[in-house]
Specification:
With about 230 residues, the chain is α/β, with parallel strands linked by helices. It is built from seven helices and eight strands.
């Protein structure tokens, strides 16, 4: 049995990959394609986690901060597994907990992020947690969500970021360079975004070492004790 981890980028998947864990980058796939990709692995999975980087919706969160979800809001809504969530928080002592929003698109402006926070009360947003919830519900798997902040709630991301990811989770460098050529004024914002993402990737790697090879997953099936 394996733990199934769904994330956004191939870079995140490389950080997460290890024995007993299958990391699948959602990339720019639509929800249906991502769910089909995950479902192909679900028969061998004991649990699923949405794990990687995400955007802040709540003020005060900065790049590199960890958010562990107590529930997912948006396209599919459910509470996360309480034992797994508690284990994640125990191994990530600086993490904050609360609702994470699963979105079908990037939220790139401070205005969009503020509106999402006001509507859902969510601390952070990503584009893979909705698929994780649906797969967990479909196959009866425990699930959890842990995300590292890559952009603050009051930060506007440059438009070039929207074209920066291929469907397979790889970086679309050519598309980013073309967007930058059309609007060179994006360069400072793109450089800042790269620096913030670098902090998030480092925090993701550090946190995964703390979580261990089972990503904090406790033994969810307890063998009965013979007390006779």
């Amino acid at each position: 049995m394996t733990i199934l981890a769904v994330t956004g980028l191939k870079r995140e998947a490389r950080i997460l990959a290890g024995p007993g864990l299958v990391a699948i980058p959602g990339g720019g796939r639509d929800a249906q394609a991502l769910e089909a990709l995950l479902a192909a692995q679900a028969a061998r999975a004991e649990a699923i986690i949405s794990l990687g980087i995400g955007g802040a919706l709540a003020a005060g969160l900065k790049p590199g901060d960890w958010v562990v979800a107590t529930a997912v809001a948006g396209g599919a809504e459910a509470a996360t597994d309480p034992a797994w969530t508690a284990a994640l928080l125990g191994r990530l002592p600086s993490a904050v907990s609360g609702i994470v929003l699963g979105s079908d698109r990037m939220l790139t402006t401070a205005l969009e992020k503020r509106a999402a926070h006001d509507r859902f009360g969510a601390l952070a947003v990503d584009m893979e947690s909705t698929a994780a919830v649906r797969l967990a519900q479909r196959f009866g798997l425990p699930f959890a969500v842990a995300r590292v902040i890559s952009d603050a709630a009051d930060t506007d991301l440059p438009d070039a970021v929207k074209v920066g990811m291929n469907p397979d989770g790889g970086m679309a460098l050519g598309a980013v360079l073309w967007a930058l050529a059309k609007n060179p004024a994006q360069l400072p914002g793109l450089m800042r975004t790269g620096r913030d993402a670098g902090r998030a990737f480092r925090a993701l790697a550090d946190g995964c070492r703390l979580l261990g090879p089972r990503i904090g997953l406790p033994d969810l099936v307890q063998l009965p004790l013979d007390v006779g």
